[in-house]
Amino acid sequence: MLKIIEIEARLFVRDRLNSLFAILFPSLLLLVLGAIPALRTPDANFGGQRFIDSYMSALVVFTLVFIGLQRLPAVVATYREKGVLRRLSTTPMHPARLLAGQMVVNFAAVILSVLLLMVVGYVVFGVDLPHHPLGLACAVVLGGAGTFALGLVIAALAPNARAAGGWATVVFMLLMFFGGVYLPRFMLPSVIQAIGSYTPPGVEALQQAWLGTAPDWRHLAIMGLVSLVAGTVAARTFRWE
């Protein structure tokens, strides 16, 4: 298992464009937004906080959604299309371990990206570190699990890598919209805000934890339920060939 994780990590690093984009882009976007003086000024629309303070959770959403829906399904679907999974099925190592290795490596990339985002925000713009670290960790784990499970459903059902990329892009756009990445959440209708609170990766739970309160247990429970249901669907429909 350790060898698989090592190999998957090497392949992740070799895919420089997607890997660097997933890890660095949230921090780079924060630097660009923070360079605008108006976004560093306290605003009543954000509860007296600055835009960049309230936008940190949306940047975490981007990290989880990009890795979980743009990278994971495409890689797994490519493995199936090229016969990698079929070949592994003839060895003593079950192909499921390959999926486990993918999950470990991609989630490690999520953690690295979020930590880098914290450091850049704190050092450059004085953004507070998460006020509820344990709550943020729970939100990231459950939100990431739900997002990755949706990615595995797409990987399980898509006939090839091209189809997986197309289907994942649609879900990617929807989750980015509900997660307040395209528009600040206060500008969205209340119904859209409510949907974003309960759908992975759980922007409301991330924001609550970052700004100082424990995430709503209902948000975490729904994301856990999505992880369970989507993971079950992916496991039952997944084809190794």
UniProtKB/TrEMBL annotation:
Its main location: membrane. It is found in: Cell membrane; Membrane. GO terms for cellular component: ATP-binding cassette (ABC) transporter complex. It comes from the Bacteria. One of its GO terms (molecular function) is ABC-type transporter activity. Keywords: Antibiotic resistance, Cell membrane, Membrane, Transmembrane, Transmembrane helix, Transport. InterPro entries: ABC-2_transporter (IPR052902), ABC2_TM (IPR013525), ABC2_TM_bact-type (IPR047817), ABC_2_transport (IPR000412). Pfam families: ABC2_membrane (PF01061). The keyword Cell membrane applies. GO terms for biological process: response to antibiotic. The chain crosses the membrane at residues 20-39, 59-79, 99-122, 134-157, 164-183, 220-238. It is a multi-pass membrane protein. Residues 17-241 form the ABC transmembrane type-2 domain. Belongs to the ABC-2 integral membrane protein family. PANTHER family: DOXORUBICIN RESISTANCE ABC TRANSPORTER PERMEASE PROTEIN DRRC-RELATED, TRANSPORT PERMEASE PROTEIN. This is Transport permease protein. It comes from Lentzea waywayandensis. The lineage of its organism: Bacteria, Bacillati, Actinomycetota, Actinomycetes, Pseudonocardiales.
